[in-house]
Task: structure prediction
Amino acid sequence: MIDGKTRTCCVFGNPVEHTKSPAIHNYLAGLKQINLAYIPCRIEQGRIEEAVKGAYALNLLGVNVTVPYKSDVIPYLVDIDLLAEQIGAVNTLVRREGGYKGYNTDMPGLYRAMVSDGVCVEGESVILLGAGGVARAVAVMLAEKGVGEILILNRTKERAQAIAQEVNDFTGKQLATAYELSEIHHLPEKKYLAIQCTSVGMHPNVDQAVVEDEAFYRRIHTGYDLVFNPMDTQFMRLVRAGGGRAFGGLKMLIYQGIIAFELWTDTQVSEEEAGLIYEHLMELEQQKKECDNR
Result:
């Protein structure tokens, strides 16, 4: 029940109409019996500074930040967590004296999703598809977690090389290598963990994948698509057709939300509670499909 003691959190983005974050946080608040309400806030371009200052003035407990403001928000924070600083992107703001401290819960969320799915990245050979901000963040996280090698595949090799160089400078060794997508047949012959870091295959273009070559997917033992809408992407279908395990972005979304919630409320969310959130979102998705088919 919302009353005079209810604390408010929100998500900043543009667009935000597709967000599943309110479903995660409001369900979690009810589950933990915490008096908290979570809403979406669409922020117009050029107004993120006003939004951050306004959120603080309105006594908002915390804020999530999504596209396109994950880097733009950084200058307006009073502090930033080391991981977020290394990645160069913030997706969670936690209220502090005089303003907000920025965190990145996306990458810890992805790692917790992998652990939940029984995937160990230590010593692993990993392919990253894409060379944007998400791929850069994933590469930094993987480097910190001790992967054996990172192969970055992108349409233009220059962007992949920039991330590879940054990772190699960060680790002090030759950990990452860049390839053009056209060079996939030149990859060393082995099995890989592949992480799809682009928006290709996202609704409404659900029949697309960055790579369509069936031979490529026969070399993928596990594939993660960070897209969560749809929940079953073309990339995932191709991974399964090649004999590998495939996971979508929903668990990452849930865990990044859980970590943000833990930061805001100083509570711990159990794996059992995380499972209940997953079931809740799946039920909502099924209800939506039934409504769409009527």
The CA atoms of residues 8 and 37 lie 5 Å apart.
